Each structure stands twice: as structure tokens, then as C-alpha cells.
Amino acid sequence: MEQAELRQWEYKCIQEESPRCTAACPLHVDARECCSLLAARRVDKAWAVLAKTMPLPGVLARICDAPCKAACLRKDKGGSIEMGALERFLADAAQSPKPPRPLPRNGKSVAVIGGTMTGLCAAWEIARKGFAVTVYCTRPDVGVVLPDGVLDGELAVMDRMGVTIERDAALTPELVEAQLEGRDAVFIDSDGVPETMLTFGEPDEITLGTNRLGLFVGRTGETSPVFMAAAGRRAANSILRFSQGVSMVKSRELEGPYETRLYTRLDKVDPVEPVPADGGYDEAGAVREAARCLKCECMECVKGCVYLKHYKQYPKVYIRQVYNNEAIVRGTRQANKLINSCMLCGLCGTVCPEDFAMDDVCLEARRRMIDKGTMPPSAHEFALRDMAFADGVKCALARHAPGATESEYVFFPGCQLTATDPGGAERAYADLRARLGKVGLILRCCGAPARWSGREALFEESLAELKAAWEGLGSPRIIAACPSCIKTLREAMPDAEIVSHWSILNALGLPETALRAGGTLAVNDPCAAREDGALRADVRGLLDALGVSMVEPEYNGELTQCCGYGGLLNEVDPELGQAAARARAEAVAEDYVTYCAMCREMIARTGKRTMHLYDLLYPGDGEPGARPTPGHSERRENRVRLRERLLRELWSEADGVSAEDFEKIRMTCTEAGAAAMEARRILTSDVQKVLLQAERSGRHLVHGETGRFLASFRPAVVTYWVEYESRDDGYLVHNAWCHRMKIKGGQP
Ligand code: SF4
Ligand code: SF4
Ligand code: SF4
Questions:
Q1: What is the tens place of the pLDDT at every residue in 344-358?
Q2: Which of 156, 252, 365, 663 has the most CB atoms lying inside 10 A of its own CB?
Q3: What is the β-pairing status of strands 719-727 and 730-739?
């Protein structure tokens, strides 16, 4: 990623923009943090936050006229936060924090002439930057009567900061001339000096500079104490720039009040009336008022996404991590995982007010990693092996309908539906043939796993095979049921007409097999249907026809959340994938119905009763919500058996695939062994290959106590280990492991 691109992405995410109060405050006080601490009764800390930004805080906090109130986002939800009153409470109740520590002295000196709020605040800010400062005035005067000792207290702090105050000074043009001679810069607080001294013309609006080099003048007539303080700060910034010889005007847009881009969603915020501030707050009142603060932030994408939440930050931070990762030869484990864990579901871009699509960032980063050869080999390997298997000789098939020599349609159930509900796919195909006639069949994968893993070349390869199969059938209209297949094929095959099975059924009416059981079900929209309103409407039309009364989860439709399978998250970080599925499961109390095979599997595996729409339209023998979720090996087996059965029963053909030697190995697993294989994504075929190798080579270890064997085999880049017993009826597998590390002198 180029740096310019990084900057564009960073700019898009507005999470770090200031809340409206801070942006509207001429001094940019962090009112949000202050309220947050005060709401937690951390009075001293809240005061410290205030005092960090405010010059003469003991004074200003008591007299600020709170222009921030007009900008407060709470305004239309009960009323703006009473920030001025809260600050007055803090000024009275908190222990004074340690006075600010100025920068080390820079050897330069500045004269401030005039001692109103503007001049005193300018002196405070200039002193903090390391200058020696002398204030010349009749007397310090902030224009308001303060409790005894308050102003003197702040003047004492200024004294410790290195500010000298010359009272009863003769404020004359000669004083100005003398100071311009002997100092590095002079600031005139125009409200604190006689008009006769203002002979230098209107100062520049941005810099407060005049036509005399080194002379800066505050503009007259300001009455708001906080704006006067901000004018003092502006003068201090100008004097610093002047003394450093840098640009006087560059990047000064954010001095003083400005418009912030921060977005905060308000539609779920209940109005709360302000706590009356007449007579000032006691602690309980101040705490209650501070608790009304909305703690404005965006985080819209993070709120809805388990993945974004998991990494504990937000996209502006993540994009920098993605960028930095590219500078490291193989990347860091953490950043590689961040890139590979996005579900590519598109929710973030849909909810983000600035269209920040984390999926685009992550997918592009994956593609670059593939191009540069830095993608960890294990990242998506299992899913890609599964895709290759679905496209291989044992599973892939393309045929016209039995007895037909042409196809008007071709049914494309997709590799996940055939893996998880081969019976449903078979019954759906029978129904389509019965009602539409010439419907061919293509069994294979749409290529989505290759695309999600960033392997465009592999995707194109798989697509070319799919296209060849489709063209071989005369390029008929494709009927697909899986939303990911529909989306992928529509993007990749613009010449093909892709229709959803759901729209076909809406037109044809429910199949004879449909279960009109009624009842209430929550509808889970798969993330691939996010942008397909027609698809979602077709599904609801069918559920309505089935008599189902539908419940919509909070995040659904355009704003639906991924089940944890999308983008191959479940391969990269199974725990996080399961957390996503659990979040989805817990979103509603009702049983779910969905129309993506993997949504159904992911959510059902959490224990939530979840059915696929096929379970209602083309039910099998069991109860629809109780269909088991097959393991990795069984899923493959299901595809193979479906192809075999269809070839035999519909086309009277043998499958034409001869069994490999390892498939003849007979084995069963203990419950623990089967669970270990499932968790470690070790297939029955992997174990069979180990057992065959051990049989042929005679190489295995024997456990002295249990008498069990331990054997290993490395068919390609992964070594598998199996702990087993030999029995009369085959092998009993107790455990299995795998690793990519190559052991010197180990098995070939
Ligand atoms: S009360 Fe005044 S100083 Fe405090 S945040 Fe509001 S404008 Fe800024
Ligand atoms: S998982 Fe979905 S919502 Fe979360 S970052 Fe990725 S695309 Fe966005
Ligand atoms: S939705 Fe997310 S990416 Fe968009 S601005 Fe908000 S925090 Fe940033």
C-alpha cells in the first residue's frame, strides 16, 4: 500500500475526531473525558483533565460562558450538558493539580502589555513554551469578581512558571517601543491598554501580527472570557512560530472553534433532562449531570462486528497496522491474523458514515501477500483443499437432465449445500426437473474460498473450469440457492443469467414436499445477501407462504452480521469464528431459519436450533431443526456419495472413479480421537494414509504401557501423527495431530 493510500483510508475513519463540545470550545477542553471521570466520581482526575488544557483554570473554570453548550449533541435529547456549571463545581471541589511544568527555558523573552484575561492567558501560554515573560499592566483584571484568593492563587502559579507581573506600569507607546527593542516579541492585550497605544492598525486575523516585526496585538471588543483566553493562546502560538522562523499561517485551521466530522448515532439515545444547575452543583448533582454526557464517538462498525471488537481498536488504527505489516518481510503473526480474520461481510462499510470498508482493506492486503509470497501457508490451506476436493473428480459433475440433450436451466446447489444437506439438494433438483423440465446439474464450488483467501489466479482457474462446464451445457440460465454462489457468479460471469432458487420458487409456488408448519422463526440473512434486497424479499415471500411468522434480529437485512464463516474466518481463527456464530445465535430468542448452508452449520453448531429453508421446502426424515451438522470428513463423503448416487440413479452411470489404496484401510475412532481430528482439521483420509504407510513400511512406535502404536506420514507439506490400536476388524484411532515442521531424519 502506498503512503498516500494509507492517508486516504486514515482520513476516512473519523473515530479520532473531537466530539462537538471540544471542537466548539475555543480552548479544546476535553469535556467528554472530564464528564466521564466526573460521572465515575473521580473529581480530582476530572479537574486535572480540565486544567491540562485551560490557562488559569481556577479563574476560567469559574467564569467560562460555555459556548460548547450550543454544539453539544445532547441538545436534542433532553438538553445540552451544563458544562460551565460542572466546571464551576470542579473548581470548588477538586484539589488543585500540580501547576503545569513549562518547557525548559529557551533563552528568549517576551513582553505582554495589558492584564485582562487575554493578556494573562497569553503570558501563561508563552511561559509554558519556555519563554521568560513580563506582564505590564495597571493591575491584573479578569473583569469579574471572583471568590477571595482565586485570582491571586493563579498569579502565584504564574510566578512559579516564570511570569513577572509589573503592576501600576505606565502603559504608553514608549513602553511598547522600549520592549520591542529589548525583547524577542511583544504582545499587546488591546482591551487592557489605553486606546492611544493602538497605533499599529488592525492585526492579522490568523496571526495577530502587525506591520511592526515582532509585535502582536489582540483584537478589541471580545467579552467572552473563553474567547479572550483563546486569543491569548493564538498570540502565544504566533510568537512561538515567529521565534522559530516557521510559517506563521500553515495548519492553523484547528485553532479556536471548528466543525468536527465526528459522527455519533443518536437514534437509540433516550432523552434525559439536565440536572438543574441553579445555585451550583453539589457532588451528587454534578455526577448525575456528567453521566448524561453521551461520550460521543463513532465506532458504528465496531459495535456490529465481533472481529473489529476482538482487536480492541477501530479501522483507523487497523489500517496503519496493515500498512506497517507490509514493511516487515513476513509480517507479524498478530497483523497477519488481523488481515486474514475479516469476514469480508461488508457490514462495516454499510454502517460507516464515511464508507470505510475494512473488507476492501483486508482483501487487498491478502492479495498483496499472495503476490509477494508472504501469506502464511497455513492460513487458508484447509478451505482451499476442500475447494479443490469439491472441484475434483470425486465430486464435480456437469450433466443435462436425464434423457435431455439440452438445458434451459442448470441447477448449481454449491459445494456447501451438497456437503451439509445432500438429500435436500437432491430433492430440490428433482422438484426443479419436475416443474421446469430441462434442468441440467453442475456440482462444484463457485470459487468463493479462493477469492476470499486473496488467490485471484486460483479463483480464475476454478472459474474457467466452471465456465467450460456451463458452456458445455449450452450456457443455460443458472439456478443457484446459496447467496455466496449467487453473488460470486454474478460478479464473475456477467454473461450468464444467474437466478436464485428462491425467486424461481416464488414464481412456481411451493413444492409438494413443503412443510407448512407455521410457527415463529427468526430470519437470518446471510451476509452475501446484504446488497440483494430482491433475494431477501423472495425468501420472506416463501416463509410467508409456509405460514411462518417472522422475527427480524436487530442486525439483519442490509445490516446483517456474518455467521463467522465468511472470508474464511473460521479457518484462520476458529475461536473467533465461533464467537461470531454465538453472537448471531444469541441475538434472538426464537429458532432461526436461514438460506445459506454455512450460516445454518455455524449457528446450529452453537446449539441454537437453526434450519435451512430447504429443511422446510425439501425436508428429510427427521425434524427440520434437528438435522445433524456433519464433520469435515463427513462433508466430503456426502459430496462424493451424492455424485455417485445421482450418476447411478438418474443417468445410470458408474461414478468412474476407482478407489485409492488408502481408502481400503478400515478404521474407526474413539470419541476423543474423532473430536481431536475434527478440532485439528484432520480428515479420515489423512489418517488412512498414515495407517497405510505404517502398514507398508512397518515403521511405527509402540507405547510400552498401553501397547498402542504411533505412526506418522507426510503426504505433502503437513505431517500427520496417529495413535492407534490394531484390531481384527481394522484400526481403532485414539488420537491424531499434525504439524508443518519438518523433522530431520523423520518420515518421508
Ligand atoms: S465550559 Fe468553556 S472551557 Fe469548558 S468545554 Fe465548554 S467552552 Fe470549553
Ligand atoms: S467482518 Fe464484516 S463488518 Fe467486520 S470488518 Fe470485516 S467486512 Fe467489516
Ligand atoms: S464506522 Fe468505523 S471506520 Fe467508520 S468512521 Fe466510524 S469508527 Fe471509523
A1: 999 999 999 999 999
A2: 365
A3: antiparallel
Residue 655: strand, helix, or coil: coil
The per-residue b/e assignment along 388-418, b for 16 or more CB within 10 angstroms, e otherwise, is ebbbeebbbbbbbbeeeeebebbbbbbbbbb
Please tell me the number of the ligand nearest to residue 319's CA.
3
Q: Which atom of ligand 2 is nearest to the CA of 527?
A: 2
Ligand 2 centroid to residue 346 C-alpha, Å: 6
CB 691 within 8 A of CB 667: yes
Query: pLDDT per residue over 142-178, tens digit each?
Result: 999 899 999 999 999 999 999 999 999 999 999 999 9
- The C-alpha angle 643, 614, 434, rounded to 5 degrees, equals 65
With a CB cutoff of 8 Å and minimum separation 6, the contacts of 727 are none
Ligand 1 pocket by C-beta < 6 Å: which residues?
Answer: 21, 25, 27, 29, 31, 64, 66-68, 83-84, 87, 226
Distance of alpha carbon 83 from alpha carbon 38, whole angstroms? 11
What SS3 class is residue 132? strand
Between strands 397-399 and 498-500, the pairing is unpaired
- Tell me the residue type at 524: N
The residues near 430 (Cβ < 8 Å, ≥ 6 apart) are none
- Of 9, 301, 309, the one to substitute when testing ligand 3's pocket (max ligand atoms within 8 A of C-beta) is 301
Amino acid at 705: E
User: How far apart are alpha carbons 610 and 590 in whole angstroms?
Assistant: 9
Q: What is the mean pLDDT of residues 524-530?
A: 97
pTM to 2 decimal places: 0.88
Angle at 271 between CA 268 and CA 274, to 5 degrees: 145
Host H or E run for residue 216:
strand 215-217
Give the type of residue at 247. Answer: S
Nearest by Cα to 587 from 596, 599, 595, 597 = 599
Three-class SS state of 457: helix
Residue 355 Cα: closest atom of ligand 3? 4
Amino acid, single-letter form, for residue 50: L
Edge-to-edge strand ranges of the sheet holding 549-551: 549-551, 520-524, 592-594, 610-612
Instruction: For the chain, give the number of residues.
Output: 748
Q: Which residues line ligand 2 (CB under 6 A)?
A: 305, 307-308, 342-348, 358-359, 562
